[in-house]
Specification:
Layout lengths: L2 H9 L8 E4 L3 E8 L2 E8 L4 E8 L1 H19 L5 H10 L4 H14 L1 H4 L12 H7 L1
Helix pairs in contact: 2-4
Length: 134
């Protein structure tokens, strides 16, 4: 998949619900709702190539999202309140499919609660930040 195809997927990310899109110095990661599934896609800025591009069921998407936030993003950021994040995650009831949209909404809408300058796309208008890195 090319950069153009990647941007097409990202530009429609908000069409079916709130996606999770983060970006670091080296890559961007997105988990995009597509009906009852999620599109997981990531792009390497240095190699200019897609690292992941697959459709996931909600349970697998939940675990991959948690791994991205708790390992990759938490390690990349200077300040990330991992314990506070885990407390919120553990306070949710229901299965992974029910928890995932709540987790995405919490992190996207309350980034200041969990750290400083968390590089998350919050709206379609914010996609310009990501396009600059491509």
């Amino acid at each position: 998949m090319s950069k153009t195809e990647f941007m097409t997927a990202i530009e429609t990310a908000f069409d079916e619900g709130l996606p999770f899109i983060d970006f670091t110095e080296f890559y961007t990661y997105a988990l995009i709702p597509k009906g009852d599934k999620y599109l997981e896609i990531s792009y390497d800025f240095e190699d200019h190539e897609i690292m992941e591009n697959r459709t996931l069921d909600p349970a697998k998407a939940y675990f991959n999202f948690c791994e991205e936030v708790e390992k990759a993003l938490a390690e990349e950021l200077e300040i990330f309140y991992l314990n506070k994040w885990r407390d919120f995650k553990n306070s949710l009831s229901g299965n992974e499919a029910a928890k995932l949209p709540k987790l995405i909404e919490e992190l996207v809408n309350n980034t200041d609660t969990y750290g400083n300058d968390i590089p998350v796309i919050k709206s379609p208008e914010d996609l310009a930040k990501l396009k600059e890195k491509l």
